[in-house]
Each structure stands twice: as structure tokens, then as C-alpha cells.
Amino acid sequence: MSDYEIFSRPEFDPNDYANAVLAGEPYPPPGQPSKTPTAAAKPSSTSADVAKEDISLVLAKLNSGIDDVVKQLRAVVTQHHESLLVQASGAKELQESLAVVRKGLSDVTLSLEKLRQKIRIPYQNLEGHVTRLQRLHLALDVLRRTARFVIVARRLEFQMSEMEKASEAEKKTGEAGKTKEELIGDEGEKERNLAKAALSIAELTLLLEDNAARPSSPATAPESDSDSDSFLEDEAIPLRSINAVTAYLPAIEASRTKVSYEMETMVIQGLATLNQSLLATSLQTAYNLRQLPQLVQSLISDLNETVQARIQSAFDVSKISKEVNSKDTSSSQGLIYKSRVRTEPTNVTAPQWSTAMWSRLEILIEDLSSCCIKVYALEKVLNMKRDTVTQTPFLEEALKVLDNKPSSIFWTTLSRTLEKHSRDAAKNSSFLQQTLGTGYPRLLRLFHDFFAKIAVHTDTSYTQNFQSPETVLVLRAISQFESFYLSRSLTRLNESVGQTMSGGARAPPGAGEGMSIARTVTNELDSAKFDPLLVRAVAKNANTALEGFAGRVDNMLIRERTATSLIGPTASTQLVLNSQLVTAMHNCATRLVKLQDEYNISVFSIIEPSIRTLQSMCKRTIDPLLTAIRREIGAIIARLHRVDFSKTLDDMPPGMGGASVYMKDLVEKLSFIRKEVLSRYVMGDITQDWTNQIVKYTLKTFVNHASIAKPLGESGKLQLARDMADLEFALNTFMVEQGQKAAKLHSIGDEYKALRALRPLLFLDNANLSSPEHTVGLPALVVLHHILVRSPIPLPHTLHGWHEAEYVRWVDEHSEEECLTLIEGGIVHWEKLHETEDDDDAEEFVSLARAVLQNTKRSV
């Protein structure tokens, strides 16, 4: 079969094969691709044989091959003749069926041709009519728009003529001598015509730019005809191609230019004079011209650029230098050589530089106030004006091109620009840093003026109780100068504390130094009092300095026993040191407490913890000393019971009328306390309060001890009376402070009254002891003590086995009701023990005690 392989290929061509045999060339040619994959993968040798064999030999092979094929076909036909006959008969039947189908297809083609004749021609006619109708609609639309354009254009001409008349009338107002009301009427008429003209121009512009024609009415337009709409949109005739329209275009452009010029003039004039009516008219005109967002954006941009330029100029050191040099021309006229422009002043020119800089800052504040008021006036009018149809505020229309409200944009621009240029100027010029940092309160007052000027026209507020976010944002922009000022303020406060404590324990601070620290704090707060934020920051610095002062004092205080020692002719060194420190802390805290009435609670609450710390330290230092004084006085008075008061008048030796030994010691101790202890505390009313407390304690303790002195004879009564007189004199002397007489002893109150009433009590008859009239000023406890002293009934401390000092201390620590209960219990106990005995004297004193108790309960 390999000999016949070439004839079985799909690309075999007899003519090409014959030509190849005649030419003696291989077939197929070597460069021809094969469509059979196997032939391409395995090239046949037949093509090479064809090129080598003779024509006669090739023909012989072909004849032999044909004969062989014929034999094979005959064999196949002979073998399958029955199935071939069946297929032949089926093909004949299929031919008949195909003839029927062919006839049916002919009928269908004929019917289709007839149907085409009935539909195509009407469709073509209808298509032509539709095209004509579309063109009629197009012509109608352009005529409608042209008519509307001509009407509006003529109306614009009339409106512009009215504006011209109003302008001419305005120019002739001086000659015509019109009244103010007439002038306002003419101005209002001009503004109305301007707004109407702007609306006309906007409509004309829309007509010129609108190429998407719409059917004039639903009746003339085909129903649901999207093809017609798209045709009108694609084929709409622009009005600029209409000669009747183009004739009006120059006048419209001239009117647009004039209206825009008048609008911009009115906007500028309205902002300059803050005339809301003029602003409203100009913004309405811009809205009618469809230029409102762009106009507002331009105005805000111009105002922001003005702010930026003013701030940059105010902090420009080179301009300050030029300004100073231009004024100082007399000093440079005689000089041949002129130095370059200085960026820093000399010691001689520093005042001129400072004056120039503050003048520029004052001008800056004026400019910033003007720009801010204009921005808020513009925003207010934009918020008031609304679209007559949708009621949408003009502000929303402007926000389509603005990132935020005009006021927010202004504050953001102001704060960023101010922060940038002030920081750069302070970084590049030590003069600006020093001047504005040291004079920060003055700079802050300028911004206070700025806030006050704009408060009338804006919703911003800067008061002690409330600060608007916008004002805080601006002040943060100059925070570097505030930080500089606060660091200097803290330095001054720390220097004051350092100078006060520089002497250490050898020269501790006193009243003057404490007042000096308080004065420094007060001065710093006074400098910042006008600003609510600055005064709080200064108060934090003051609190820090006071904490440092309290810490250093705390390290110097002596807490050993020697600090409260009352032994010796003079006070101990430790006591003197503590007195100095306490005096300094007290005077400082006392002066600072007065600031509560001068400053807001939010400011005082910052330094209040430090003040309380100083007061607490004073109390912790003084309390042990006062306790030691009371303990010392109580121990001396308790020695009263060592004296024998049981002697009668006959036993009293002649010439023995002096004070008792314990009383002499008490007088000396009181003198020591007054001269060596209390006199060292220069604390005003506080020292006087301590004096009164000591006097009250001394009187009360003495009265309690004297009331339980037993046995008590007539001589003892006289001795107690002399001791009372000496005590009264000593206490009067004790209450004199530094040569100035204090309040009299009777101002002490009940304690002094009890001392004065105790003297006659000693000499009363027994029957009068229970009489309230004879024991006025004496506590019931003292009267009961004296009754028990005269009676055989034991006193409470004797009954319970206490020392006299322990009992008096117990009385001080308990209430009067508890003390009376204790005495009543002792009487009841004594009655139970002696109920079988008949003792008239004891019964008398029991009755007296019962009467006193009854009177006390009745008075309660």
C-alpha cells in the first residue's frame, strides 16, 4: 500500500502529479506542508521514486494499479450486492420525497414574495412620513427656542436700558436734590433690574448652549418614540447658526460684561460697608448668572490671601528693619558707608524695633478683624438667601465647590498661616522670640481686642467661662510664645523659692520670705489674670513652685522631741527653726488663700492643693508643740495637790501671804511660753487663737484641780484665792503680745467666769451651795466637786483610785453628762455603804448634791 500512499492524500492533485512526472520532479514538492499528521511526521519515499522513474514506467504502474482497484471494487460489489440494491431503492424513494419538499418550498417562496409586497411599500412610506415628522419637530423646536431667545433678548435690552437710566439718575442726584428716601428707592430699583438682567442672561446662555431639543408638547410628539428623541438629540440645530439669533450675541456679551462688573462692584462695596442688602442683591445676581459658587470661592480665596499676606508682612524682620531705617534717616545722612540691612537690632535700636513690631501687629489685628467680619457677613447672607423654588440656601450651592463653610476655611487658614510664620520668624530671629515671648501678655491682649471686635458680628466668644473653639485654635497657633513666657514665669517663681531657701537651716525663711513667695505668685497671676487660659497655665506653674517650696521646707523641719522642748531659759534651736519655717509657710498660704476671692474657682482650684499642703504642714508642726504646752501647764497645775490647804486661820503663820510654789512655776512657764515660743510665730490671728486656747486650757484645768483640793481649811481657801489672783494677773500679762494689749481676760468666756465665780464659792455657806443664784458662772461639776470636798463623801478619783491629774484629764476627755453620772454614781455608792448610819452632816451634803443635779437636769 505504500506505492499508493501518495494518491490517498487529501491534497493530491492529478494535474500537479502529471506535471511533476513530466518534469522529473518529486511530488509533492519538499516545501509543501502536509495535512496528514502521519505524513508530516514520516516522509514517504514515493515522491523521490517519482522523480527518478520514466514516464512509461509510471504509466504502467498506474494501469496496473487501476486494474487492481477495479478488481477490488468488483469483489466488494459481488460480496455486498444485496445491501447495495436496498440502498439504491431507498435513494429512489428519497428522490420522490425531495420533489414534494421542493414543491412546498416553491409555494412558501411565492407567499413570502406576496407578503413582502404588502408590507415593504407601506413601511417605506411610513418611514418617510416619520422622517418628515421628525424634521418638523426639529424645525418647531428651533423656532420655539429662537422665539424664546428673541423675547428674552429684548427683555434684556429693556432691563439694561432701565439700568442705564438708574445710573444716570444716580450721577445727577446732587443736581436734582433728591431726598434720602428717593435715593434709596432709585438704588433699590437698580439692584432689582440688575438681578433681573442676570436672570435673563442666564436663560439666554442656557438657550444658546442647549442642543438637546425637547418636543414642545406631548400631543405633537410620538408616543414612546425613543428613536425620535435620539434623533432630536443628535440633529438639534444650535441657535448660534440662526442669523436672527447671532444678531443679538454682541449685545448679550456686552450686557454680561456690564452685569458681571456691576455685580463684582456691589459685592466689594457690600463687604466693605457690611451692607447686607447690597450683598444679598449681588449674590442673587451671581446666582441668577449661575456664577455663585465661583464668586464665593473667589471672594474667600481673596480674603484668605489677604490674611496670609498681612501675617507674613507683620512677622517679616527685613520689613521691620527697613521701616526702622527709613525713620532713622538723620543718623545716617553724614555717613559715607552704609552697612547692609540688619536682621537683628542693636542695644541702641532695640526700642525702635520693638515699637515698630508692635505697631505692625496692631495693624495686623485690624486687618484680621476686617477680613473676619467680611467672611461672616458673607456667610450670613449666603445662609439667609434661598432659591425661590427649591428653598435651598445659597450656602449649600456655594459648598459644591468649597471644602467647608467660609468661616471654617477662614479660621483654618488664619491659624495655619499664623502658626507657620510666627514659628519661622521666632526660629530665624531671636529678637522676635525674645520680644514676643517676654511680651506675650501684650500680644495676647491684641488678640483679645480681635475677639472683642468680631464678637458683635460673629458667634465667637472668649470669656472667663467659655472660649469658642475658633479662638482656642488661633491661640494655639502662637503657643510657642506662650511656652516661652511660661518658662520664664516658672523660672521667676523658682528663683523666688530658691532665694528664700538659700540660707538653709542657719538662716531659715521667715514671715518676710513667705510673703515674698506669695507676692511673686500673685504678681505672676495678676499679669495673666486677663486671659482665662493663660492664667490657668500660670497657676499650674505656681502650683509646681509651691510644691517645690513645701518639699524643701518639709526636709528642713525638725520632728525630734527637742523641737517641742519647753526646758531652759530660752527656746531650743530646733524650736526656733520650726517657728521660722511655720511662719513662712503660714504667711505664704494666708496671702494665697485671699486669691480665692480674686480669681475664678477653676484657677484657684489649681493652686489650692499646694495651699492645703502648706496649711497641713503648719498644723502637723504646731499640734505637737501645743500638746507639749498643755501637758507642761497641766503637770505644773497638778502640783497644787502637794500644797496643804487643810490649815485653819489659827494655824496660818504670820507673813505667809505670798503665792504658792506651783503658781510661781506656772507664772514663769507662761512667761517663757509667751516670750520664747509664741512670740516667734508671726502669724497674726492664728497666734492670738493659740494664746486664747492656752488661756482657756489653763483656766479650766486650774478650776478643775482647785475644785477637788481636799481637805480644804479656811487658810487653804485664802491661799487658793491668792493663787487665783496671781493666775489672773499672769494670764492678763500672757495675753499681751509684743507690747500691744490684746483683748481683756473676760473675753475668754465661760472659763474666766468660772475662775471669778470659784473665789466666792469657797466662802459660801453650805445652804447656798445648791442655789443657782449664788453659783452663777460655775459649771455644775465644779459645784458638786466643792460640795464633796466639804462633805465626808469621797471624790470620784478617790473612789476609783485615780490620781488627781488622771481624773482631770478624764473630765477633759468626756462630756459633762458623763461626769455628772460618775459623781451621782459615787454618791449612790456611798449611800449604800452608809445607809445604816445616821449622819446629819453627810445627809445635808447629799441633799445639796441632789439639788444641784436636779437643777442641772431641769435646765437641760
From TrEMBL:
Cytoplasm in keyword set: no
Subcellular location: Golgi apparatus membrane
Composition bias, Low complexity: 33-47
Biased composition (Basic and acidic residues): 1-12
Keyword Membrane: yes
Alphabetic keyword roster: Golgi apparatus, Membrane
Listed InterPro entries: Cog5, COG5_helical, COG5_N
GO cellular component assignments: Golgi membrane; Golgi transport complex
Domain Conserved oligomeric Golgi complex subunit 5 helical: 239-451
Record-annotated Conserved oligomeric Golgi complex subunit 5 N-terminal domain positions: 7-156
Region described as Disordered: 1-47, 163-189
Membrane topology listed for this record: Peripheral membrane protein
GO BP annotations, alphabetical order: intra-Golgi vesicle-mediated transport
A Pfam short name: COG5_N
The protein's name: Conserved oligomeric Golgi complex subunit 5
